[in-house]
Amino acid sequence: MSPDPGRAFTVEPWVVREPNLDLAALGQAESVFALSNGHIGLRGNLDEGEPHDTPGTYLNSFYEKRPLPYAEGGYGYPESGQTIINVTNGKLIRLLVEDEPLDLRYGRVHRHERVLDLQAGTLTREVEWESPAGRVVRLRTERLVSLTQRAIAAIRYEVEVLAGPIDPGSALLVVQSELVANEALPARDDDDPRVEAAMTDPLVAEQHRHGETSATLVHQTRASGLRVAAAMDHEVHGPDGLQISSEATPDIARTTIISRLEPGRRLTVVKYLAYGWSSRRSLSAVHDQVRAALAAARYTGWSGLVDEQRAYLDDFWLTADIEIDGDAELQQAVRVAIFHVLQAGARAERRAIGAKGLTGPGYDGHTFWDTETFCLQLLSHVAPEAAADALRWRQSILPLAKERAEQLGLKGAAFPWRTIRGHECSGYWPAGTAAFHINADIADAVRRHVAATGDIEFEKEVGLELLVETARLWRSLGHHDSAGEFRIDGVTGPDEYTAIVDNNVYTNLMAQLNLRVAADTAARHSRAAAKLGVDAEEMASWRDAATSMRIPYDESLGVHPQSEGFTDHQVWDFENTKPDMYPLLLNVPYFDLYRKQVSKQADLVLAMQLRPDAFTPDQVERNFAYYEAITVRDSSLSACTQAVMAARCGHLDLAFDYLAESALVDLNDLAGNSDHGVHIASMAGTWIAVVQGFGGMQCDSTGLRFAPRLPPALSRISFGLRWQGRQLRIEVTPDGTQYQLVSGPPMRLTHHGEALALAEDPVLRVNPDPQRVDPVEQPFGRAPRARHPGG
């Protein structure tokens, strides 16, 4: 199947296929084709390294420090930033054919195809290339980053000589397999503050060793003092007379394989890679770590690694797969989204999940509130151990968060707005320090995870401490006014176009829930809470603050202002804002954004999604219509939330359009910056839009509730999830919804308010007919692309 015009990839259910190499879209393909396991990330660069957009080999939480300059200093400003760096590149395998290097910019490319297989977890590439001298070779490579052996990546590289326009006799081939540190990186556009800071030669060589078919390089970062080891080993199969040798210098290690290959014969090289890093372990310990991992990989063998990868993903997809009938492009995109979110967190193991995962250097590799509010909603239901580890990472950085709170004159923990290892790295405090809602987002992820898994030990050992310290933050940040209401002033909510406001509704509602859940959890685990210094008086103060929380409401308009006074502001002049002015943050001054009614992304609407109990149905409908008209979606986080709430409000076609925008942001490069890495939170939001929007799922400690609504464009949606040790599958069609308990003990749930008992046999219920709703409007020129029939 050929790709659509302007689309780099074909539409297929379980693979992403690039049938031709498009050098103009190389960066996007490198991100989409990136392989990761949450510890190692390999961008989808070509095996020979060039041409490239951005070379990328990343290790989770491996960073270098960089200064954060300020035009004017101020107390509490972060003094240094953290930037993910491109570590030793082990993907490189160069080929020379009779002294001509395989470089797709020279000679003739007869065929070039790459395929990301979502079920196998591999990236394959097939090339037929004719050198400038007329020699033709066929190359087939397969690459994986192991989901079962955390430190391992591997490449199978096979080359064959073909008959060409000249004498089809044997050809002399030289394969150079390399480890390269401190690669030269392309310059970036410094005018965009979202783009990562460039780092030049961040690694200092400490050790280089080689054997006959292997090599190891050990380096340390100049400023952050982190030590990294990269090792490679090879298995080679080919004709007699092969010559193999290895060498190593401080920044380059190379294994060279020389063979004279007859037409029809093949030379096969399997390259095993191992990566490890530490801030504490000695040079010899890190060296030995990667050599041991390499030995285990060689023991498993290439076919064993492939089989393990397939078995891991087969088990994952049994629950995680979403089936969509009626839109083949969307079916593919939803699976790609789920796959990339899994890759971002599968083996992160108590380290952060970045906004780009390990697919590119965008946002400096930082993690934000995206992880808890979007990614963990998916992972808690399809890969709960990965979600638990992400929250354990938050617990591990609590000491730094408590230090930050103390620096700010607050109690409890003030989690960093953007970080890699726990230090605040945001140099812009209105969108960083003031965005305290990240604390409630973490607390809410704890609440949801415990509800989804029923893991009481996790709640006691990890969740309780996170809930207590975030509740303490809110109690000290807010205050009771003269009327007795609890106010949280001078903060920034999810919408970064409205900063330093009083009583942001999202922030206050999420803080309210944080306070309540913290008090309830501390009461359940009273002994553990007492060890954290929690007593009855403190719990009572949390409940009192939650009960009296200020939630602004505009009686004249009948809507909730995003923050106090927001609906009194002048509405942004959307009709006179040209399309090339978006995103607004790059083209207009922040002060103008801050004083107008214009939302970068869903804020109040996100509050309605996460706190449906706080709004009446009429309020939800009025609020949704009001904020649709002023939300410009300059953030990729917005469309999925608008999809959920559009579905709940009965705007099913609009919800479908938003779902498509969220799902296709990287496959179709809708934001124009997929070359920096994929949008992990938007991909997680794709799952949220399907499951919570069209599946109508809501859950808390009382159980699961569903209110399915199928958009007219689709004939069927099926999705699975895990719930407290059970595996469920839900299928929504025009005739109704079927609930199936795949495994686990009997349970109860609700369907559009009707209680159901679920045991061995599936249960089918009719969906109510959709109600007619009045259309809603978006800002001029900012409506999502109409995807529904007749749109």
Automatic annotation (TrEMBL):
Protein's name according to its UniProt entry: Glycosyl hydrolase
Gene3D superfamilies, alphabetized: 1.50.10.10, Glycoside hydrolase, family 65, N-terminal domain (2.70.98.40), Maltose phosphorylase, domain 3 (2.60.420.10)
Glycoside hydrolase family 65 C-terminal domain boundaries: 697-757
GO biological process: carbohydrate metabolic process
PANTHER family from the UniProt entry: GLYCOSYL HYDROLASE-RELATED (PTHR11051), GLYCOSYL TRANSFERASE (PTHR11051:SF13)
Binding-site residues, substrate: W369, D370, K600, Q601
Family: Belongs to the glycosyl hydrolase 65 family.
Domain Glycoside hydrolase family 65 N-terminal: 18-278
A single GO molecular function term of this UniProt record: glycosyltransferase activity
Sequence segments annotated as region (Disordered): 766-791
Pfam families the UniProt entry points to: Glyco_hydro_65C, Glyco_hydro_65m, Glyco_hydro_65N
Residues at the active site: E496 (proton donor)
Domain called Glycoside hydrolase family 65 central catalytic: residue spans: 335-687
Keyword terms: Glycosidase, Hydrolase
